[in-house]
Design goal:
Layout: H1 3-21, E1 29-31, H2 35-38, H3 40-49, E2 52-54, H4 65-74, H5 84-96, H6 100-119
Parallel strand pairs: 1-2
Amino acid sequence: MIAEIYINILCKNLEVLLIQLGLENNFILIQNNDPKHTTKKRKVFISRHVKLLNEPSQSSDLSSIENLWSILDGNVDKTVVTNKNNYFDALQQAWENLYLNHLHNLVKSILGLLAAAIKTKGGHTKYQF
């Protein structure tokens, strides 16, 4: 994914999702140092629109997105996946059918995740979402 696509996804989905979760005035976007997260275009967009917490590179301990991917992948009907396009369509369908409760739980789990990371001084945690 390139930065333009990432910014487009944020533009189309972030505000709507935050409103649905009741977090529009109380959130911080967490992202790692993936190249699409660190481009000048992304930095300009983020600095104008959202509060941001950058993670160290390769820090999966602070990323609830891996759990979200797991939920989405588990909800994909693998019988319709024959190529990348089918998989993308199936993931999009899984996203549209995702219960807001799953997202709320992921958001709420961040405090426990951060506390575990602080306790280990940034080291690996056994924290489970």
